[in-house]
């Protein structure tokens, strides 16, 4: 008889895990609290527009494709990747702009408009961080560290010293780059893991390096098309997805996970995989204090958490050809306004990430229309200093539009809006059970990464596994897909 698996949560990690286990003959049922699957990788659909709700930047497409290869499917039958160049267009508060190209010739020409010294420095920076990436990918990102000796051994510790993560990301960038504009553009990208470039370890300079070396890709139909592809494969393999059904408890008997409790009662399974945010799951879904292990409610509350995001979704009745797909606006007093998200204040002059998929994808907006997301890093809800009411939302919108007015070609955006909505930290908390309304889960500090991050395999409960942002190896869709890979490997080991 094939083993049965229940997966709590239909986020990208849970869906990818389901596809792989189904391909190995497991019987898999997914329980999802919301009507629409996908977790934070979600969408908004209107008559004229299709918006990605949060996630929009696709790095390392091979990791996405690996899920299809694993189960013997051709990804081209499900999704369409579109390579991007430039990978970013940067706008600055002084009215200037700068393109970061994937093409090496165009990139060199663009860098030389800053200075030849910075052009040389940027390539040296990429080379050094690329070396770190190869080490991290081989020895850390693809290992589960389920046992202490998996991490605390001579080779791992030697490699940790080799990648030297002790300086912060911004200091490390500054050792190669003199131009403030280029430094800030690189540093901004470390925010994609919810950590400040002025405090976070320099290992997160992997983010801009990977983007540059491997390029950025757009999925036709937006990021949610990947969720739709995973859903289609789950049904092809005979899996089940039960929506509108919040899980109330992970049932634990005699030291083993044996199922879940929901409004429908108790459903049994041989294995439980939890795709709910780890801190939320430990506090709310595991009722047995002994099963929590070291992650007591007190410890959970004292751990460090990532920032959150304020996202404006705007449907526009005209095209803005000056925009690329991925755009970054660097505001005045960059450090102060970036740090505000980590010091419990909303930024006064925010730097912005502007996502415009309709630039190249006609499925995202009707003809002669544009859809954009504008994202600002803001504090999570754990400080209780900010209430996301109508007044706060309007303050943030006004500040965003004030910044956009510094980009001459975007100065008329407000008068061309025909659809508008926002996503706040409160939405992260209530819709997706994200602990503290964070957008990126547990902060990836040095003491909350690798062996020190919550493990994918419960050390206290048999047959219980975790996948998602807040567990090893970390945050971001590509990395969550790696955590799914590790979870499946651990489950198969038991056979």
Automatic annotation (TrEMBL):
Record protein name field: Phytoene desaturase
Positions of the Amine oxidase domain: 13-492
Keyword Transmembrane annotated: no
Organism: Vallitalea guaymasensis
Family affiliation: Belongs to the carotenoid/retinoid oxidoreductase family. CrtN subfamily.
Originating gene: crtI
Organism ancestry: Bacteria, Bacillati, Bacillota, Clostridia, Lachnospirales
Pathway annotation from the record: Carotenoid biosynthesis
GO molecular function, one term: oxidoreductase activity
GO biological process: carotenoid biosynthetic process
């Amino acid at each position: 008889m094939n083993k049965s698996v229940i997966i709590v949560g239909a986020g990208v990690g849970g869906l990818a895990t389901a596809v792989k286990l189904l391909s190995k003959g497991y019987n898999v049922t997914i329980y999802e609290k919301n009507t629409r699957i996908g977790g934070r990788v979600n969408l908004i659909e209107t008559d004229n527009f299709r918006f990605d709700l949060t996630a929009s930047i696709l790095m390392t497409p091979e990791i996405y494709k690996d899920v299809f290869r694993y189960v013997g499917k051709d990804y081209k039958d499900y999704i369409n990747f579109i390579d991007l160049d430039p990978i970013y267009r940067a706008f600055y508060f002084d009215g200037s702009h700068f393109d970061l190209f994937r093409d090496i010739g165009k990139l060199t020409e663009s860098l030389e408009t800053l200075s030849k010294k910075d052009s040389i420095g940027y390539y040296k920076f990429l080379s050094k961080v690329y070396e770190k990436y190869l080490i991290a990918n081989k020895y850390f990102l693809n290992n589960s560290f389920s046992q202490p000796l998996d991490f605390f051994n001579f080779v791992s510790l030697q490699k940790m010293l080799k990648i030297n993560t002790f300086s912060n990301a911004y200091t490390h960038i500054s050792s190669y780059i003199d131009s403030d504009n280029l430094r800030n553009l690189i540093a901004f990208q470390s925010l994609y893991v919810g950590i400040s470039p002025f405090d976070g370890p320099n290992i997160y300079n992997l983010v801009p390096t990977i983007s540059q070396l491997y390029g950025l890709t757009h999925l036709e139909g937006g990021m949610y098309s990947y969720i739709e592809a995973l859903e289609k494969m789950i049904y092809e393999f005979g899996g089940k997805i039960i929506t509108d059904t919040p899980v109330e408890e992970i049932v634990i008997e005699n030291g083993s996970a044996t199922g879940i409790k929901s409004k429908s009662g108790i459903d049994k399974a041989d294995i439980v995989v939890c795709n709910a945010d780890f801190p939320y799951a430990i506090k709310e879904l595991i009722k047995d204090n002994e099963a929590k292990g070291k992650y007591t409610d007190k410890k959970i509350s004292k751990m460090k958490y990532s920032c959150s995001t304020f996202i404006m979704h705007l449907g526009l009745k005209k095209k803005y050809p000056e925009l690329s797909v991925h755009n970054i606006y660097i505001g005045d007093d960059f450090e102060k306004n970036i740090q505000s998200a980590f010091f419990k204040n909303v930024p006064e002059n925010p730097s912005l990430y502007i996502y415009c998929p309709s630039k190249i994808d006609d499925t995202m907006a009707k003809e002669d229309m544009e859809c954009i997301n504008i994202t600002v890093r803001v504090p999570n809800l754990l400080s209780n200093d900010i209430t996301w009411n109508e007044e706060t939302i309007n303050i943030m919108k006004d500040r965003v539009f004030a910044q956009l007015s510094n980009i001459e070609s975007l100065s008329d955006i407000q008068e061309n809006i025909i659809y508008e909505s926002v996503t706040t930290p409160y939405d992260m908390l209530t819709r997706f059970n994200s602990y503290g309304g964070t957008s990126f889960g547990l902060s990836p500090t040095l003491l909350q990464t690798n062996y020190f991050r919550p493990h994918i395999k419960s050390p206290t409960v048999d047959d219980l596994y975790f996948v998602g942002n807040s567990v090893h190896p970390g945050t971001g869709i590509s990395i969550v897909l790696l955590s799914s890979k590790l979870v499946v490997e651990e489950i198969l080991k038991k056979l």
